[in-house]
Write a structure and sequence with these properties.
The chain has about 675 residues and is of the alpha/beta class. About 30% of the residues lie in helices and about 20% in strands. The structure holds 5'-O-[(S)-butoxy(hydroxy)phosphoryl]adenosine. InterPro entries: Ac_CoA_lig (IPR011904), ACAS_N (IPR032387), AMP-bd_C (IPR025110), AMP-bd_C_sf (IPR045851), AMP-binding_CS (IPR020845), AMP-dep_synth/lig_dom (IPR000873), ANL_N_sf (IPR042099).
Length: about 675
């Protein structure tokens, strides 16, 4: 037993009795010892990465117990590291412990280095970045927290945040956290209907938004979108409006402008109190509110942030994701702030005002870790190397990719052109449900090679298992199966909001006793993992997860459309795009172009612009089995023009439908080619 490895959070008096100092924030809790920038080496930092991994799987209680005690500040120590039963979806970590995530992300750093920059807001207009110190972020957070409190928002209440990437968005998240309210950030690219759906499902009592947002030089009417959404949301009592642009927002009765005192005492929360909900798409039905809780999520975000990206004190961490996605939660906000990092908030787009934007930002802000999505890289590499080489990238130390499979071309371009071949490039696999990175090439022992375009190694505590077609764990290497994880880890989601049964059914029923990811994976000869893609009806458009059923639901609302089927097909930049097969009422076939335009608008208003299908094919009927199930396999083959081998069609109700659809597609293809020629 390495000295001092025992979890100090477990029954330690030290934490309770250390001298308490009140600071401006009103927090009086003793400080955490571990993590980056801590005064002495912790037990974790003495072991090799290989030894840490072995310990994490052979003795998870000791590993996670020590990590939680060392890295987090507790108001009350926990008495039990974990209590989990995966088959019933019961997951609890650090039981009996009380803490506040905002204290861990702000106060502990303000005590040590109040003037360290917490956020660099890379605003839409290049060269206008704004730096926010830990002290300032704590103050703003407390102001917002007080405003929420004084308007009746309490512990456990849900609050929707509909804001573009900005310090106020981060402060809004942390303000909820400070008072124990549960935030649900809704990506500002979602429509007002999509926002309303999430507010209703979560039963939000308030919404925090901006008057307007800006992105890529365009203005987005955020407050107006919220106004439209809350019309159908009786639970909302207040809309808090912050200013992003000069234009004053039109204020109504329930709207509140923000101005409050800058000190707010943190609420001590149980480890397993809700931290946030984040809505994401499943293979069926409406988006599900993935539930994350306090201590386990924070610990996992902070540990992965440090080890996967080799984060060190003084680094400028650049994750260019939006705070509306889990990547923004874990690696723009919670992981970096818990580690006392300087984290970049990227408000703009990769091509605004030109395709050099990312690398110009890297040079200007001296970014150490650059973490982004393959879809953006695929777009940028088409513009050529000069946009990269113009700028000094010597500050970069680690490159990261996330959200979708990274193809070899993009991987090599990122690695050799952007990183000059000298920065480890980590392809990180994880999900909204996993809370943080689960499979990535790092950490690994010194000098371990990285295989291009492979996620490779499980993180501490993660035990991947590949399942065969009969539900049996596959042993051995050079094998493909359904990607499961056999033991719980602190960052795993705890439930689906309001529907625990759906949580159990989706993740723990398919392979009893295991977490099922929905992805397939390959394990190489060397035992490394490569993600092969979703096994369900979830698609990935520009790194954004979408259920094809969600798009179908939106299309089916059109009165002229009895039936639709949506599939994903590969796209060279976006990764995948939706392809819609649409059956129209017979008498409407002449109006098809008008109806299709209405369908596009419908998807944009029901979901978001990026969800609008790239292709619409009008067909007279869909291929169905005798039991009425649509055979999507056939639709995929038609859309991808690989109909030579259709596989077994004997279960089709009427096989002649296949020929019809192939012909319709052939016609569609010709039309598109002609249109292209005209352009
Ligand atoms: C799905 C999760 C992880 C944060 C952003 C997306 C796909 C994610 C990879 C990767 C191949 C990946 C999976 C996964 N995915 N990372 N490195 N290689 N596929 O989170 O929206 O919850 O989507 O994204 O299919 O299941 P999300």
């Amino acid at each position: 037993t390495p000295e001092g490895w025992e979890g100090r959070g477990t029954g330690s008096e030290e934490r309770r009795c250390s001298s308490l100092t009140a600071d401006r924030s009103g927090s009086t809790w003793p400080r955490a010892a571990g993590g980056p920038g801590s005064s002495g080496p912790t037990e974790l930092s003495r072991l090799s990465h290989g030894d840490l991994y072995r310990l994490s799987v052979t003795d998870p209680d000791r590993f996670w117990g020590s990590a939680a005690a060392d890295r987090l500040r507790w108001a009350e120590p926990f008495h039990r590291v974990r209590d989990c039963d995966l088959s019933s979806g019961r997951i609890g970590w650090f039981l009996g412990g009380k803490l506040n995530v905002s204290v861990n992300c702000l106060d502990v750093h303000v005590e040590k280095h109040p003037d360290r920059v917490a956020l660099i807001w890379e605003r839409d207009e290049p060269g206008t970045e704004v730096k926010v110190t830990y002290r300032e972020l704590l103050e703003t957070t407390c102001r917002l927290a007080n405003a929420l409190k004084s308007h009746g928002i309490n512990k456990g209440d849900r609050v929707a945040i509909y804001m573009s990437v900005s310090p106020l968005a981060v402060a809004a998240m942390l303000a909820c956290v400070r008072i124990g309210a549960v935030h649900t950030v809704v990506f500002a690219g979602f429509s007002s209907d999509a926002l309303a759906g999430r507010i209703q499902d979560a039963g939000c009592k308030a919404v925090i938004t901006f008057n307007e947002g800006v992105r890529g030089g365009r203005v987005i009417q955020l407050k107006a979108m919220v106004d439209a959404a809350v019309k159908t949301c009786p639970s909302v009592q207040h809309v808090f409006v912050c200013q992003r642009t000069e234009t004053p927002a039109v204020m109504g009765e329930r709207d509140v402008r923000l101005e409050e005192p800058a000190v707010c005492a943190p609420e001590p929360l149980d480890s397993e109190d809700l931290l946030f909900l984040l809505y994401t798409s499943g293979s069926t039905g409406k988006p599900k509110g993935v539930v994350h809780t306090q201590a386990g999520y924070l610990l996992y975000a902070s540990l992965t942030h440090q080890y996967v990206f080799d984060y060190r004190d003084g680094d400028v961490f650049g994750c260019v994701a939006d705070v509306g996605w889990i990547t923004g939660h874990s690696y723009v906000v919670y992981g970096p702030l818990c580690n006392g990092a300087t984290t970049v908030l990227f408000e703009s787009t990769p091509v605004y005002p030109n395709p050099g934007r990312y690398w110009e930002t890297v040079e200007r802000l001296r970014i150490s870790q650059f973490y982004g999505a393959p879809t953006a890289l695929r777009l940028l590499l088409k513009y050529g190397e000069s946009w990269v080489k113009k700028y000094d990238r010597s500050s970069l130390r680690t490159l990261g990719s996330v959200g979708e499979p990274i193809n070899h071309e993009a991987w090599h371009w990122f690695h050799s052109v952007v990183g000059e071949g000298r920065c480890p490039l980590v392809d990180t696999w994880w999900q909204t449900e996993t809370g943080g990175v689960c499979i990535a090439p790092r950490p690994a022992d010194e000098g371990a090679p990285i295989v291009p375009a492979m996620a490779m190694r499980p993180f501490f505590g993660i035990q991947p298992v590949l399942m065969g077609e009969k539900g049996e764990p596959l042993s051995g290497n050079d094998i493909t199966g359904a990607l499961c994880i056999s033991q719980p880890w602190p960052g795993i989601a705890r439930s689906i909001y309001g529907d625990h049964q759906r949580f159990v059914d989706a993740y723990f029923k398919p392979y009893p006793g295991f977490y099922f990811s929905g992805d397939g994976a390959y394990r190489s000869e060397d035992g490394f993992y490569q993600i092969t893609g979703r096994m369900d009806d979830v698609i990935n458009v520009s790194g954004h997860r979408l259920g094809t059923a969600e798009i179908e639901d939106a299309l089916d609302e059109h009165p002229a459309v009895p039936e639709t089927a949506v599939i994903g097909i590969p796209h060279d930049i976006k990764g995948e795009v939706p392809f819609a097969f649409v059956v129209l009422k017979e008498d409407l076939s002449d109006d098809a172009p008008a109806v299709l335009q209405q369908l596009r608008d419908l998807v944009a208003t029901k979901i978001a612009k990026y969800a609008v299908p790239e292709h619409f094919l009008v067909v007279t009927r869909l291929p169905k089995t005798r039991s009425g199930k649509i055979m999507r396999r056939i639709l995929r083959k038609v859309a991808m023009e690989t109909t030579e081998d259709l596989g077994d069609v004997s279960t089709l109700d009427d096989p002649s439908v296949v020929k019809e659809i192939i012909e319709a597609h052939e016609e569609y293809r010709k039309q598109r080619e002609e249109e292209k020629k005209k352009k």
